[in-house]
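Title: Prediction job returns without error message
Component: structure pipeline
Severity: low
Priority: P3
Assignee: unassigned

Description:
Job completed but the reporter wants confirmation the result is attached to the right record. Sequence as submitted:
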Amino acid sequence: MVFRIAILNLVLFFPLFLFGQSTVIKGKVTDASNHETLIGVNVLITSSNGTATDVDGNYSLEVKEGKLTVTFSYIGYTAESRLISIKAGETKRLDVDMHPSTVMLDAVVVSAGKFEQKLGDVTVSMDVIKPSMIENNNATNMSTVIEKVPGVTVTDGQASIRGGSGYSYGAGSRVMVLVDDLPILSSDVGDAKWDYIPLENIEQVEILKGASSALYGSSALNGVINIRTAFPRQEPHSTIEVFSGMYMDPKRESLKWWGNTLRLFNGTTFSHSRKIGNFDLVTGINIYDDEGYRTQNYEKHTRFDLAVRYRDPNIKGLYYGFGSNGMYIDKSDFFLWLSADSAYKQNTSSVNPTTGYRFNIDPYVVYQQSDSIRHSLKTRFYRVTNNIAGANKDNRSDSYFADYQFQRKFRNDLVWINGVTADYGNVVAELYGNHKSSGEAVFSQVDKKFLGQISFSLGLRWEFYRLDHETKDSRPLFRTGVNYQLADNTYLRASYGQGYRFPTIAEKYTETTVSSLRIFPNPDLKPETGWSSEIGIKQGVKISNWNGYLDVAAFWTEYHDMMEFTFGVYNPDSIPPSIDWMGFKSVNVGNARITGIDVTFTGQGSVWGLPATILAGYTYTDPINLNDTLHTSTSKVLKYRFYHSFKADAEIDRKILSAGISMEYNSNMVNIDREFEDGIAGIQIFPGLKEYRQTHNKGYTVFDFRFGVQATTNSKLSLIIKNLFNNEYMVRPGDIRPPRNITFQYQLKL
């Protein structure tokens, strides 16, 4: 009797017992290459039943019994699917390793919208540089790296994207330069110290083309360069690199001033990264010594970097830490040649040997509250000190910067970012006086994806700036863009963005003399504004064993109240004009328009069965002065620009051997300051320049070549030849670039 009652109860209540038990799949998702946990991976059973991994890469999902297909998808990774069979009430564990996508359009970028998204989905033109290009070319300065990108040039340290900037004596930048999303432009000159950026620890470099002030504020008038540093993988990693090189004899015998001696350069780099419990540690050091190929033009520096991150074990999703860099430098820049026939000899009256140091520390805290909510606070203190020998031009600038962001991801493919930034600058300088500046901004941006094919972006920023409690400026900035996926690997985009740049302290207040060249201050200099728009198409390429993409964009940029250093007679009203008051001053010259086409191809595959990579592109710009007031020899064309530019870099591997070649072509420079060629200023400042340009200003092509041998599994020997054909070329008046030079490099990875 008791047995029958038990059977009856089992029959009656077993369905209720099953109903009370959950049927669950759970697990962890990691990167197959380095076993890092992946946050925010979409885990789907059907379109209406899914979840996302948490800050530790874990997920849990209630499902129905039976056979199910579980799909895992994540930006930058190949989607994974698993077929499982699960019983009612069962809890099944399903861990998945996801593989980074080999499709280049799936590469993850951050700078376009301040959140992670696929390169193919961004609404603006963007290029990405990977660390391999830095290693392969033995880059010792970040500027030589970004110059590999089509449409990007660097003239005397000043970056220009699609002809947006010319040459302004190193003062002011229309391109915002960031390291880990924080500005690295000095608060006095507004320039980037390219040799200060730690090349030994780069994750990738993202270059955003076009006005981006709505996201990044003043100085993003022409674009953004964001250098993102790397954090350690699962296993400890160390790299030691040693190189030594020499400058060869130039083609023109009259340029060689060093006789039978050798002009040498060498350097050593060490970097190390590892995880220690919940700590992530990255450190590195770089020592560099370049004797230079011109008289009194050299650089010696020692640079270190340190980054620490702590992942809080008690509060999931909370991590905090700091990054820090420091550098001591001893250098002498080249400014004016002695004459065209002695172009490697510097005019001694323009020599200013400089010692100094740079230092920054960047405390931050990030709280990933859930897979959809993120808070971040990033700060930076950055000091630049220059001690200039015997010139009464010593200067020091301190920059303080803070950026808070709140990010919310919604289930309907909508990302909303809000933020506030604040910066403060303190400048103590004999060259342009003591000044204080400050700025605040609030911004908001919405990115939405419709029907899985249309990506829409809308951003607004309000920027406020003051200088010495006297000069104030405030304005709204707007940007928008749309990207439509026409096919599996075809993306059509259009964008519009406003730009803005407040004049730097150096542009407003510098008063000095360099040889016979005089620079005048202009306290009344006004901010410049502008906008850029483009329409482009990005076409993924998968032909045979080649994977890559072709990007074509037509762009239109306009500037208003454009700032340019302009030659003139700037005597006070009470003093008659004379040669003593002739020189250069930064003035608002009026309006300008730059239109053109930018074409880029990047890919990886094989040539004759050998693995190969390529980056190549062509840029055409038509830079027009709309006011005819730029004091140039051909007044309708903006100064220091090229109409045509072509760049390419290719590498091929065969077992332990590798070889690569890069080339750069720029057409003739149409316009420079006409005073450099004509009249008294031309004779005194750049003697022989007019005749030199008549002979040599026909455009130039430069080739670099490299060859490497994988000596062991962990070590590599390389030979790098720059300016392979020893061409003589000039990128700005009086600055003839290096002759052929050879570098021997040894790299050991542990």
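Comment from assignee: result matches the submitted record. The chain has seven helices and 41 strands.
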